Amino acid sequence: MDDLNSTVHPSCLQEPPLAIEVINRLDLFGIVLYSIFTFMSSVCFLLYLEECVYVYRKVPPPKKTTIMWVNGSAPVIATMSCLGMWIPRATMFTDMTSNSYFAVVIYKFLTLMLQELGGDEMFLRRNKNNKFRISTGPCCCCCPCLPFVPVTRRLLFWLKVGSLQYAILKTALSVFSIVLWTNGNFDLSDLEITGAAIWINPFIGVLTITSLWPVAIVFMNTRNTLRSLKIIPKYAMYQLVLVLSQLQAAIISILSLDGTIACSPPFSSSARGSMLSQQLMIIEMFIITLVTRLLYRRTYDPLPMDITENDNAHNTHISLTASPAQEDTV
């Protein structure tokens, strides 16, 4: 074991380097690369600010607040990834900030679909005679035997609670993890049964799956109604941000802990894996920001009423106009 450790560069066993160490070791290619990534994250943030101004002026409340939250997921992740790239020792803080923000976005996307349908009352009115299929991902996609559930106020309440719990608990657990880290009890690379990370991270995974299920239920049962509002590509972008920010980052972290991603002084294997993940994330979030800008930067007209509702309104109008004529005839 001593012979093995003697062949390993000392920096591969140390903490991530300081920001000044990263800057001092950059060659011409590194300076150009870091400049490009910083430019991309800055463009994401500026485009988001411009879109917030547009949405604030053109979209009525409370929908404009929800759109700002949902549309900010990619720029926030890109900005946090850029900070983590320049300051490697802040990676845990930037990642937790991004994940906590996206936890709120999951709930906000559910709220956005309800607001596109006219709000809670209109949603219940449109679907009062319908039943929702709940055998959807990520929880019950392989359980087609589950019964269809009638749309009631109680169902809407539990759908909201299912998404909101992740936004609250994820933020609370992130703060708790930082507190444990300052005391030396939380380390992502510590996979021992006595470590805090091995207990907190799987619990967060369960909360994530639980929060995604209500969003999938509402989307799968209302996508045809909201098709004219481009809800399908919006949902695809939301899912893409989820996969890239959660699954991709987890895979790279596992590869770095396994040693597949080699150490490159002054970066250890885990620090280099985090750096590669952040650089990939900046590129991906830059592209997603451009796409979501085309989807959300538009005028928002109210969704037309259903055909049955139009028929009922038309029949009511005919009966009201016919009544005076009948009285005159009598």
TrEMBL record:
Bilayer-spanning residue ranges: 28-49, 69-88, 100-118, 163-184, 196-219, 240-257, 277-296
Chief location: membrane
UniProt-annotated location(s): Membrane
InterPro entries in the cross-refs: Ostalpha/TMEM184C
UniProt-listed Pfam families: Solute_trans_a (PF03619)
Keyword set includes Zinc-finger: no
Keywords assigned by UniProt, alphabetized: Membrane, Transmembrane, Transmembrane helix
Cellular component GO terms held in the UniProt record: membrane
Topological category with respect to the lipid bilayer: Multi-pass membrane protein
Protein name in UniProt: Organic solute transporter subunit alpha-like
Originating organism: Chanos chanos
